[in-house]
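Quick start: what a row looks like.
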Amino acid sequence: MLTVAVLISGTGSNLRALLDAAADPGFPARVVVVGADREADGFAHAEHFGVPTVLVPFREFETREQWGAELRAQIDVWTPDLVVLSGLMRLLPADLVDAWAPALINTHPAYLPEFPGAHGVRDALAAGVTETGASVIIVDSGVDSGPILAQERVPVLPGDTEHSLHERIKPVERRLLIEVVRAVATGEIDLARASSDAVASDPSSS
């Protein structure tokens, strides 16, 4: 059984979808802890499913590195096999990424490498594209630049706003996240291999 830690900052809609999936006895993963960098509404989902929560407020630390060290200490107590960033609106310090990767994944509301960063939906609309998407990646030291594990296109419709487009992307993100977690649990996705293959295929790594 794959054990999963989920890190959130807000409402935790992806977290809820994963918890719902994991409630099925046939699902090969379970969420063992939910952490946040601030008081998060998504903690209510964890509490509903009886999952422990960890709060490590970013503002209580002088540096990102100190915050990251405490977050790592709090999460590593649960020895998760996989850490999922689910709407965590905080960049992890590099040493924490190095400690958890490649068993550290994130969702993004764009078809990477298109429109990385915090405003992927807004940027897609501003670019006037006819389609964007959703992606699940391994987190690395860059901005949404890690190896892609799954992605799917989502059309941009006439009259779309940032809100309406994002609302159509979210269900795709949730489904892809659940599929990836399942595939990691069953061995269909080997995170270490996916990470090393990405490095080997990157010309800048040679």
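That is the whole record. The chain has two domains: 1-100, 109-138+145-201. DSSP finds seven helices and seven strands in the chain.
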